[in-house]
Write a sequence for this structure.
């Protein structure tokens, strides 16, 4: 029996999220939202695929479907990976600060804990790029789904970044913290405006009288 978080029914996942259990938490939610965004993109491409008006884009639709679905599956895996890196980080926080092993243990656990939300951010960046492509070759009836996917990908990326920053604040003097935050900041600067641009273009299309 699969006991992973990503295999839970939505009602069970949200119940565990709302409970006193330490996982899932914000990092897992960021990965889940990213997976939902990817699924929306896949759906929009799937339902456009084969329509007469969009037959010239069939190869690109198939490519987008394959890529967005791969992102969905990987982001679901990151829900459990985020939970797995929490335990050693929690143990590190509980150590005696006078223990000579405290600082190196905390550093290693923190860097590992940041890996998952950073990976979530990178996959969301990939997804945003795919949604930019899809917006121009998608059935008009499915444009709202592309816009929703872009906003969800943005939320997932910003949420994942927050999970980077909450961890790096425990090692403010470490060079690793500077590097991790710089990676997160770079992704935010480039892809948040791009996700918002997709959503804005979709909104403009939906609200413009025709």
């Amino acid at each position: 029996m699969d006991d992973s978080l990503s295999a839970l029914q939505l009602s069970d996942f949200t119940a565990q999220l709302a409970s006193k259990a330490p996982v899932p938490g914000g990092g897992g939610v960021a990965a889940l939202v990213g997976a939902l965004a990817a699924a929306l993109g896949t759906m929009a491409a799937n339902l456009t695929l084969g329509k007469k008006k969009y037959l010239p884009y069939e190869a690109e639709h198939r490519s987008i479907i394959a890529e967005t679905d791969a992102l969905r599956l990987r982001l679901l895996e990151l829900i459990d990976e985020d939970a797995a890196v929490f335990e050693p980080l929690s143990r590190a926080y509980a150590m005696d600060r006078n223990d000579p092993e405290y600082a190196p243990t905390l550093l290693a656990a923190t860097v590992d804990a940041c890996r998952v939300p950073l990976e979530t951010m990178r996959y969301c960046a990939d997804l945003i790029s795919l949604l930019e492509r899809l917006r121009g070759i998608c059935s008009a009836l499915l444009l709202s789904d592309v816009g929703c996917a872009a906003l969800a990908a943005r939320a997932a990326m910003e949420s994942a970044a927050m999970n980077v920053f909450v961890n790096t604040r425990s090692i403010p003097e470490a060079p690793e913290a500077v590097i991790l935050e710089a990676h997160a900041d770079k992704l935010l600067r480039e892809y948040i405006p791009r996700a918002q641009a997709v959503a804005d273009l979709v909104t403009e299309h939906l609200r413009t009288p025709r």
